[in-house]
Amino acid sequence: QPMSLPNDTDFLLEAGRLINSGQSNSLILHGNVHDLFEIDLPGGEGTEYVNLTTLISQKWGIGRNIVLRYELNGLIQIPEDAEEALNEAWDKLRGINPREGRAIKEMLGHQVAAQPTPTLAARIRSAVGDSLKALEILRQITLCSRRGHLDARVIILIDNADAIIPDGPLPQLSEQDRFRVCKLQEWFSEPSFANGTDTVIL
């Protein structure tokens, strides 16, 4: 659901209401997206100005929320205090027992493939420069939450979304742009995502 940004941070309250009410799990922010926003420093030591993604990360990255950030051709950024939980959830999604460090099918006596399953960190590194792969990794991270492998609410911030899904008629977009648009449409249309608690903000 598109939402325009005012010059202050009141839009976060409106966005929170939209998400918490279940009206939408995907938001498109537009307007003053390149503005800097003033926030208070910890301990009352004054204020500083931060960009939009940093503002949302700081305001919403609390409690059970895990805020991930992604920018075209960059690394998917994971908060340090969430790395262990996400790694375990990623392994569980692939049938790997995090405590034993091997596939559950091995415990059941099945033959294990010679090639180990890539870790989440390895998959993220391999997606640098490949936005389609990065979007699929982000989709699968939300699967971890939806399937009960992650006791958290995942909030994904896609920075400079206009570079990932440029505005314009679909036939006029490049092949890569069309693939990205279709990937996001497919992801956001999944019933388990639409009815879940995870959120994607562009």
Provide a short characterization of the protein structure.
The chain is an alpha/beta fold and 202 residues long.
Main traits of this protein?
globular; 39% helix; two-stranded antiparallel sheet; 9 helices; five-stranded parallel beta sheet; 202 residues; alpha/beta
What can you see in these coordinates?
By secondary structure, the chain is α/β, with parallel strands linked by helices. Helices cover 39% and strands 19% of the residues. The chain has 9 helices and 9 strands. It has helices at 11-20, 52-60, 83-93, 104-107, 120-126, 131-146, 161-164, 175-188, 191-194, and strands at 2-5, 26-31, 37-40, 47-50, 65-71, 96-97, 102-103, 153-159, 199-201. It starts with a strand and ends with a strand. The model has no long low-confidence stretch (mean pLDDT 82).
